[in-house]
Design a protein that fits this description.
It contains nine helices and eight strands. With about 300 residues, it is an alpha/beta fold.
């Protein structure tokens, strides 16, 4: 799904070993009221559909489910349905889903996550497993689960700014290269089909692979270099909530992910991701590898950013 180009640059690389107990020893109760157990169950609902590979029945059902969930929570839900032709001529039906809270407000924050899962497991160890689709519990479903649970919270606790939750499709379909081929499809479509004329959020955060039981989130360096004030805002909020041992002040390298098309379009959008995840792009990215406690930590930060002045 993603490509690390460098590992350590511009910030210190101390503490390379993962602090595996950080997310596990905390209770799931959060300061904002975000429910990590609910987020886990919503992620499981996605995984239970099967791999959400574009063009499959599982993807159709999973996307329909997201739309239903967000229509029950958000003020407005927009669906960007489009057809994408791959380099080998395959036509993929894709959908971006945008759930909007307080659409009347001009000042807005954009959160995004991808909801599709990868059609192959190229990081698996056997040839047979490499041909299998990725279940996508962490790589896809964790972000969806967090967003639906965040929708629960924002329905009862109105945010201080307008909030847009963007579920992108086709992020993980092709090859990350270089060169990139048939990836980041939904985010590239979004920047050329904005939800309103002149749409420009105050800032944005991509939440990707955020459920790892062994959660440890360093700086993504494209984010650090191109939107440092947003990185500072998110990491300071995490520290204020007591999560400084999870949102660590270290380099995680340059990562190609859905924030890149938005950065290229002039938006101040960063990537929050824990890419040090052994089941990544394998058939073993399953629900037992993610944690309600990890989702509670990340959801607490996401909620605090838009509900606390």
């Amino acid at each position: 799904m993603l490509v690390i180009l460098i590992v350590c640059a511009l910030v210190s690389c101390k503490g390379e070993a993962k602090q595996s107990s950080a997310a596990q020893r905390r209770p799931m109760a959060t300061t904002t009221g975000f429910n990590g157990s609910a987020a886990y169950n919503y992620a499981k609902a996605q995984v239970d559909f099967g791999p959400r590979v574009p063009g499959t029945p599982a993807a159709q059902k999973a996307g329909d489910w997201i739309i239903r969930q967000m229509r029950a929570r958000a003020d407005t839900v927009m669906v960007q349905s489009f057809t994408y032709t791959t380099v080998d001529g395959k036509r993929l039906p894709l959908r971006n889903i945008i759930a909007r809270f307080r659409p009347d407000l001009t000042d807005r924050v954009l959160y995004l996550t991808h909801w599709d899962s990868r059609p192959i497991s190229e990081s698996a160890t056997t040839d047979a497993e490499k041909k299998m689709p990725v279940p996508g519990a962490n790589d896809g479903a964790s972000g969806v689960g967090m967003f639906v649970a965040l929708g629960d919270l924002l329905k009862r606790t109105r945010p201080d700014v307008g909030v847009d939750l963007l579920f992108t499709d086709g992020e993980d379909y092709g090859a990350f290269g270089p060169p990139e081929v048939d990836v980041l499809i939904g985010s590239k479509y979004f920047v050329t089909h904005l939800p309103s004329p002149g749409y420009k959020p105050l800032y944005g955060v991509l939440w990707d692979m955020i459920g790892d039981k062994d959660l440890r989130i360093p700086y993504e360096m494209n984010s650090f270099q191109q939107a440092p004030e947003v990185v500072s805002r998110v990491w300071q909020t995490a520290a204020d909530l007591g999560y400084g041992d999870v949102f660590v002040q270290e380099s995680g390298g340059l990562i190609t992910d859905d924030h890149i098309p938005l950065l290229n379009a002039g938006m101040r959008v960063i990537d929050v991701i824990d890419l040090t995840y052994p089941p990544h792009h394998t058939p073993y990215d399953t629900m037992d590898k993610i944690s309600a406690k990890s989702l509670a930590i990340v959801g607490d930060v996401a909620a605090a950013l838009v509900t606390r002045k």
